[in-house]
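thought: fold this chain, then report.
action: predict
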Amino acid sequence: MKLKKNIATSENGFIFNPATGDSFSGNAMASEILLAMKNGDTEAQIKQQLLQKYEVSATQLNRDWEDWIVQLKEANLLEAAIYDSK
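observation:
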């Protein structure tokens, strides 16, 4: 999935969808992932960056990634099937 272009994000994890007026808050890692998505990084690139930066196993990262994508889909923040690992 690709993050919708109009989604506003901040360094502290604030996420705003101007199309709906909805806002969400996330942590520093969420902010980092959103920035990478906005920059056009692939799922594999983002996961590799996270594995290098944080102490997390690939198995745990994959589980967390799936949960994260579900949350973004439910919040209507995604537009294309780039990050869909199914």
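thought: worth noting. The mean pLDDT is 88.
final: tokens above.
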